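Customer ticket, subject: "Can you confirm the structure for Family 43 glycosylhydrolase?"

Message body: Hello, I'm evaluating your service for our small team and ran a test protein. I'd like someone to confirm that this is what the system normally returns, since I don't have a reference to compare against.
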Amino acid sequence: MKNIVIISLLILFTGNAIAQTKPDTIVVYKTVGDVELSMHFFFPENHQMNDAKPVIVLFHGGGWNGGGPEHFYGQCEYLSSRGLVTASAQYRTKKSNGTTPAECVKDGKSAMRWIYTNASAYGIDKDRIVAGGGSAGGHVAAATATVKGFNEAGEDTSVSCQPKALVLFNPVANNGPGGYGYDRVKPYYKEFSPYHNLSETAPPTLIMLGTKDKLFNPELAKAYQARMEELGQRCDLILYDGQEHAFFNKDKNEEMHYQTMIDADKFLISLGFLAGEPATLQSFTEVEFQKEENPFVKHLYTADPSAHVFNDRLYVYTSHDEDTATYFNMLDWHVFSSENMKDWTDHGAVMSLDDIAWADKWAWAPDCVERDGKYYFYYPVERTKIGVAISNSPTGPFVDQLGKPLIDNTGQLEHIGIEPIDPSVLIEKGQAYMYFGCREPKVVKLKKNMMTLKGDVQDLKIKGIENDKEHFGGFYGEAPWVFKRRDTFYLLYSNGWGKTSTLVYATSKKPMGPFTFQGEVMDVVSSWTSHGSIVEFKGKWYVFYHNMDLSNNNYRRSICFDELTFGENGKINKLKL
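Agent reply: Thanks for trying us out. I re-ran your input and got the following:
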């Protein structure tokens, strides 16, 4: 998606922004007595009234009893950012106007006729008019496409009210016996119920429904779809497992709120009403922030930062400590990026345990590298395995195409090591090297496809640490990270877990060593785990690390960074915190 789209989504979906979202214009489309009914318009960026863009008119839910156009402002904002003219229509309800469900349908039809009549004045393409809605509003939208009667007295019925497509969020579209509202519309349900009025003229339809919906249950939805298909018409039914009625509302389930918009987007793309790529769940959860002081990420707990520069932008991949964590039971990985080290974007979770068929727990310290336009994400799980996933973007989403671990110590502890965790990858002169291991530093070459080992796993030798004990000196604990500066390779790692442990380093003239211990990189941090990375960005060097300053809890850590300098002899000037 274009940056401008993502920015608009951030404005919309941060905090309580939906309530602050305002339409571009509000137009009265119908007057009944002293009641004025309005259309709340959202226009695409740079929209001109002489354009010919598709439009979607959305009708709010509320059981024909209440509700208002604001209910669909979120969907309007998103779909307008994708190029649709969008409108959320007001209609009469029992609470506001003392009306029956029949008047709701009359108003829906009036709204669609008004759109057809005024299309040219609002830059709308008459051949790409869509109706949509949720619950009772979904019924109203479906009725404009299927029901023949319930027209407002005196209205010009020669003007069509039938949309070219329907996008329905758990619509109560069957009002017969066993369907929603039957007791209220029993005398006229056969004329009122969209299901009972389906015909060969019904437009392509998308129905999005939770499997636990009791008002328009999955069996009724499947019957609706089957009847549409009998008539030779398209009806896509998406069932969302475990979701109840109104599941698409943000206050019910944010992820489902976003997912239904994405699925509606894909449906409209398939009809040729939209072009390009829809948003991803990740783009909806992006957060913009600035570094004020360390820790620089404060809106969630993060650890194990792996920093890389791709296309003149710095990306930091992290593990994610849960807000209530009492152990390292991490579930997903995040990525943050910046072009100036001040302004940052949290791109959301790039991958989670749910995306891995062969792993169930412990999404620990990751790394990511780029090769030939592809991004390879390496991640340790279950303390025994390392996987690799691929994306076309440094912000993912990443896909486990291999479908199995790249590294697995099952049955080969002596060869792989007792705890193959903390992978990091360096590409030097076309050869990729992966470093990993807890207490036992390991290295292995990767083939050019980055998903196959090239040769055996080898011990990574570090000289000068033979007599050092855990938490002191050059003892190797975990978190290997290798980078090159000038003609020297630097191995950054943690020397243990405790009040005296910190990040230390060793150097070598070869990427596979042996390395020679040099000393500490930085003072001891507050957390008893240390994990970091060092990267050059725009002429300066930075060390990324984590502490527990925000939480005072070793299982809820936060990432930091500081500028790092080197002496003339190439040694790292120890960072004083």
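A couple of notes from the result: The mean pLDDT is 94. The longest helix spans residues 101-117. Feel free to reply with more questions.
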